[in-house]
Structure formats: structure tokens, C-alpha cells
């Protein structure tokens, strides 16, 4: 069996920036174990698979795998998938509707920008967070701790986010993903994302985290449209908007890096 894999850098306008994803279009689903092995082989934050959908109003069903597990939502790999469908597969419609374990996800192309309509996951206060959390994040001064899917740690400023030096062994013991965030110096807010339990010490740009960060910062800053930056080594830029209580918008661009043939 031969498959085509596209290596795409998402949330960036240049190669080697943003977050890389391996995008694999399928005609029908492969066994879960095989898809997981392929994700492990590619060893990127996410390997994403999609198939044509038979559901009314849905174009494709989509699934995402880290090197060690399947996750329920991934922004950058969805953006990369839309890029492949529009730019590599000749999609002529104005939008793409995916169905996922987190419900419908819509991506539109507008003036070269991809706009993703994602669920809004507003985090709530998390008072009983693990006692070793600050130590696991290198002794940071925690301002606030929230949680939805991830633990979200609010720090004082951008410098605190940049200078954070996590202890990944301790983070693995905490057993869940951790996001750190703070007001930005030149953007509305900044963040970093750590997921050692998923085989990813630090994810370069994390759309699903922004499903949680956007509603938090929108309420705190009193504005619906914002600019965000994820301060990983590769750096990623996002245009964000709180559409309503149920949905958020994330906008960005992608760059194709490689097209390869998989032989199984």
C-alpha cells in the first residue's frame, strides 16, 4: 500500500517556522494501531488523517495522533489539512467542514488566510492543582491556575513565559498537558505549551490550547479580536476572535515543506 504524506508548517508564513504536521489523506480509515505507528514513525507533534465523509453537510472526518496517543482536538494539524486540501488537492469550494471527536470544525480561505471556526472551551479556576506545579515549571511565580482540557498557568508577563525552564520529569508526573500564558508586550497575549505525557516536551504552536486561551483573554482584556503569539523556539502567530460563547476563530497561514510517498 502506498500513501501520500504532506509535511506542512502551520501558523507561519515561512518554512521552519510555526508547527509542523504530517498530513495524510485517506480514502477510508486504516486500523488505529497502524495510524498510531505512523505517527510514532513521523515523530511530529501531530500526524493527521482525514477521509471523505458520508455525513450530510460534512466534507471530511478528521483524526489526530501524537507520537504516543490520539487526541480529541488539534488546531495546527487541522489548519495544515485545510492547506493541503485547498492547495494540493484542488478543492474548489470556499470552505471545508470537518467532523471530529470535538464536533464540527469549519475552515474558510479568505485572501490567502485560513480561518478556523473552533469550539470555545472557557477554562475555570483550578484551586486543587498539583503541589509541585510551580517547581515543575522551573519555580515560576504563579498568578492564577485554570483548567479545561489542560492546566493553564497565568504568569505575570511575557518575560516570565520566555524565561520558564520546565522540569519535564516533574511535568510527566503531573500527568496532564500544561499551558503557560501572560499578557504580551507587542501582542495581546503569549503562551507556551508542554505535553511530555504525549511524547511532546514543548509543542511549537497549539491551536487547541487557544480554544481555551481565547475565551479567557477575551474576558480579561474586554475585547473579542486579539493577536496571540506562542513563544516556542519556532514561534507561531495567530489572529484570534471570540465569536460567541460557543465558538472561537483562529486565523493563520501554512507553508508546504515536503511531499512524500509512504510504503507499507
Structure description:
By secondary structure, the protein is α+β, with helices and mostly antiparallel strands. It folds into 2 domains: 2-119 and 250-263, Roll (Diaminopimelate Epimerase, Chain A, domain 1), CATH 3.10.310.10; 124-242, Roll (Diaminopimelate Epimerase, Chain A, domain 1), CATH 3.10.310. 21% of the residues lie in helices and 41% in strands. The protein has helices at 32-42, 75-87, 133-136, 158-163, 168-174, 207-221, and strands at 2-10, 19-25, 46-52, 60-65, 70-71, 95-100, 103-110, 113-119, 124-125, 144-147, 151-154, 178-183, 189-195, 200-203, 225-230, 236-242, 247-252, 254-263. The chain has an 18-stranded mixed beta sheet that branches. A hairpin with a 5-residue loop joins strand 12 (178-183) and strand 13 (189-195). The N and C termini lie close together (5 Å). The mean pLDDT is 95.
